[in-house]
């Protein structure tokens, strides 16, 4: 996994030339142990949420879900570091996650913790 692969994927998405699905179809999936996968993604993303920049409660989020593409479950190019807040938000607002992958920052409203 080189960071060029990831930059190429993002460039394709941002240019709208290829969807994530199409980009991965032309590539051989990268497989690695889950622990290594997590470390690779976190290191590449400099241990910060790629949406809001938070360095707390970080998750590794899949771009194409494991259900969609089990072969890409440990491919670092198919993952991005997100904080738990952004990750939860994108899970319930898939359209916003697609926008994010296309290079738009998504403003996550504050979570109402109740009174
Ligand atoms: Zn975040």
Major β-sheet annotation: 2 strands, antiparallel
Count of domain modules: 1
How many helices? The count is: 5
Termini Cα gap:
46 Å
Radius of gyration: 14 Å
Helix content: 40-55%
SSE pattern: HHHEEHH
The strand count comes to 2
Proportion of residues in β-strands? 5-15%
Principal-axis shape equals globular
List low-confidence stretches: none
The hetero compounds bound to this protein are: zinc ion
Average the pLDDT over all residues and give the rounded result.
Answer: 83
Structural class by helix and strand composition: mainly alpha
What is the structure about, briefly put?
The chain is mostly helical. The protein has helices at 3-15, 20-25, 34-44, 84-92, 94-101; strands at 58-62, 79-83.
Structural account:
The relative contact order is 0.18. It is built from five helices and two strands; from the N terminus they run αααββαα. The chain has a two-stranded antiparallel ribbon with strand order 1-2. With 115 residues, it is mainly α. The longest helix has 13 residues, at 3-15. It is 41% helix and 9% strand. The N and C termini lie far apart (46 Å). The radius of gyration is 14 Å and the shape is globular. The protein has one domain. It has helices at 3-15, 20-25, 34-44, 84-92, 94-101, and strands spanning 58-62, 79-83. It binds zinc ion. Residues 49, 51-52, 54, 82-83, 85-86 line the site of zinc ion.
Please outline the helices and strands.
Layout: H1 3-15, H2 20-25, H3 34-44, E1 58-62, E2 79-83, H4 84-92, H5 94-101
Antiparallel strand pairs: 1-2
Bound molecules: zinc ion (ZN).
Zinc ion (ZN) binds at residues 49, 51-52, 54, 82-83, 85-86.
């Amino acid at each position: 996994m080189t960071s060029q692969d990831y930059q190429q994927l993002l460039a394709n998405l941002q240019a709208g030339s290829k969807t994530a699905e199409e980009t991965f179809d032309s590539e051989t999936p990268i497989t690695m142990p889950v622990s290594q996968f997590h470390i690779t993604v976190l290191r590449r993303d400099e241990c910060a949420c790629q949406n809001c920049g938070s360095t707390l409660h970080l998750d590794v989020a899949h771009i194409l879900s494991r259900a969609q593409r089990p072969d890409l479950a440990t491919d670092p190019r198919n993952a991005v570091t997100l904080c738990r807040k952004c990750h939860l938000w994108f899970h319930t607002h898939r359209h916003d996650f697609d926008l994010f992958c296309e290079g738009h920052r998504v403003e996550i409203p504050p979570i109402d913790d109740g009174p």
